Amino acid sequence: MYMYIKGISQLKALLSNYGKEGVYWITGKPGPGKSTLMKDLYNDPRTLGHLRTWSGSFSLVTAGFFFWISGTVMQMSKMGLLQALLYESINQSFDLVPVLFPERWKSYELFGGDPRPWTWSKLALAFKKLLSNKSQRFFFFIDGLDEFDGNCTELVDFVLEHSARSNVKMCVASRPWLEFEDAFHRFPSLHLEDLTAPDIHLFVSEKLHGSGMFISLERLQPQKAKHLIAEVTEKASSVFLWSFAQDGFDKAMTAEVEPITPEEVEDRVKRMRRRLSSRCKGLLEAPIGRNESTVRAEVHYLHRTIKDFLEKPAIRKYILDGLT
User: Fold this and answer.
1) In this predicted model, what pLDDT tens digit does every residue of 24-71 receive, in sequence order?
2) pTM, whole model, 2 decimals?
3) What's the burial of 31, exposed, middle or buried (CB within 10 Å: 0-12/13-18/19+)?
4) Which is the most buried residue in 4, 58, 145, 220, by most CB within 10 A?
């Protein structure tokens, strides 16, 4: 993905140049691949190469955080963000520990640890100390700003305040909410929905051409076939379409009720996990640990858009109506 994005030249400039722009904003509707791109950029060795051009003779520190609203509290909170960025930064230079946390370091030396919980004020102070070191260059990736569980304005202020430093740059990603548009519109940005339409058109075309019915339609009425591809692409709204399937409600309600053995429970759960995987294409999954029973598997959302979809009032009503 890294090599084929037209707007990537602006990002390369941000990574490589010691300029005024401290923020690069990746935005788009739900589902076009913002998080995938962020992870790709975060892990691609070419990103580090561009950043080393920017850092020059100064030491380079990189860190990232990926908000996830369906995860733990730490995965969707400002505390989690700060602790993750501090941890990854310190992990690249352990000498920073006594500098950033002098009290806790003394407690560790004297007593082998510090039982006091972390506070936002202490972490924020340590983060400011970290960034105040002008002999270092810092680059942070922060994905999913819209999945933050607090006031988005606080998150925007955090990004703008720290990226204003001459030795700090950030690449952030979010949905195009007004809070983020107002804050980041003056910075270089990449709108993913502007780039995915050709890929979706190709995807739709290939899928339809795998159908014998469509092949017949294309042979007999080529214009209608062409229009169908264009219509499906347009209705995708620049987001890859996901399809769902479900068993008939009547069949479930008329099935014979009888006790089942533990072995039958295990077998049914295994079959349900396979059915979930094949029909939801990973959007819903039921992961299990290495030593855990399949029966203990819980269904998880792969992406926030699935959670958002199922929590829409109309969808919830549709599901509940089916249960009554």
Assistant:
1) 999 988 777 888 889 999 998 888 988 998 989 999 999 999 999 888
2) 0.67
3) buried
4) 145
